[in-house]
Amino acid sequence: MTKNKAKVGVLLVNLGTPDSTATGDVRKYLREFLMDGRVIDFPFIPRWMLVNLIIAPFRAPKSANEYRKLWTDRGSPLLFHTEDLRDKLIAKLDPQTYVVEMAMRYQSPSIEDGLERLNKANVKKIIVLPLFPQYASATNGSVADKVMEIARGWQIIPNITFISNFVEHPLFLEAWAELGKEMMQGQEYDKYLFSYHGLPERQIRKGSVDGYCQLSDKCCGNYTKKNQFCYRGQCFHTTRLLAEKLGLPEDKVLTCFQSRLGKDPWIKPYTEDIIKELAEKGVKKVLVFSPAFVADCLETTVEVGEEYKEEFEELGGEQWDLVPSLNSNDTWVECVKDLVLTNT
Ligand SMILES: C=CC1=C(C)c2cc3[nH]c(cc4nc(cc5[nH]c(cc1n2)c(C)c5CCC(=O)O)C(CCC(=O)O)=C4C)c(C)c3C=C
Ligand SMILES: [Fe+2]
Ligand SMILES: [Fe+2]
Known about the structure:
Rossmann fold; 12 helices; Ferrochelatase; metal ion binding; Ferrochelatase_N; iron; ferrochelatase activity
């Protein structure tokens, strides 16, 4: 084998997080994130006014406090778990063939720097893996958009492959099942809640081919060729596959959506409503999975693990356990390795 053989570049991309818990850094992060037209999909002027005059000024101090609860000596969990995943992946791939970089869609390290390093390594191909299991225009779509914006400026554009989603990957499901079993330790819960990040309903309708998705069971209740990119459909599908793998009784499993922002309708059912309903029915013991995230972050540790737990307990619930995210779990690293090898 010649030493000069062109390599394959791999770019792992997660969402992004503030550089620190200072309110100014959180504001900067929120501005970059929410000014993305795929996240707040309004025309530029109304988006600019909403983000810069309302959301960023009022939300930044509150979010900064939340980030302080989450921050560690290594900084934001979302960032250091992604670094650990990258390092474990590098150790598993042949260095003669692969160059691996990680980036964040917003803030740092930037996609631009990651791509420039891959370009300088003269790779023949780049595999972009957005670290979001279910496709959404606001996440996977936005990563693809940014990569193409940068590559557009290059004289030579190598082959670029985007992995759009991986909900059906057996090792993704296996990794979640392992973590779930570890948490359960053989005990039974009254209910198993699968809480996914929400999305405005409008964004699902915009992506619906021929108006197929009306946010009803007809589309989202099944996973077929017709709705292969419906985020809500992919979330329900993830729940079904995981519940089956874990042998959970169907009548104890629920899918819901968290983290609504703004007044527009987001995809339902809302996690807050489900918590109230469960408490009213006298449910005491709940195990929660958050499989839209592959690393622990503000949305899992603080929102699900602390705030929703408090709400449930205040309403009479007794036990609310959150399954930790995939982070740099070895089976998850194997999953990422397999995604790379099968897309090379
Ligand atoms: C599954 C992945 C995600 C989707 C889909 C998504 C859509 C989406 N998010 C917002 C607004 C916010 N999200 C925030 C945090 C956040 N979101 C994701 C993932 C998805 N977002 C992650 C991993 C995180 C945590 C980042 C971290 O640093 O830990 C926040 C900021 C936090 C806060 O102030 O509460 C906002 C705001 C919208 C509007 C949206 C879809 C349109
Ligand atoms: Fe989000
Ligand atoms: Fe749907």
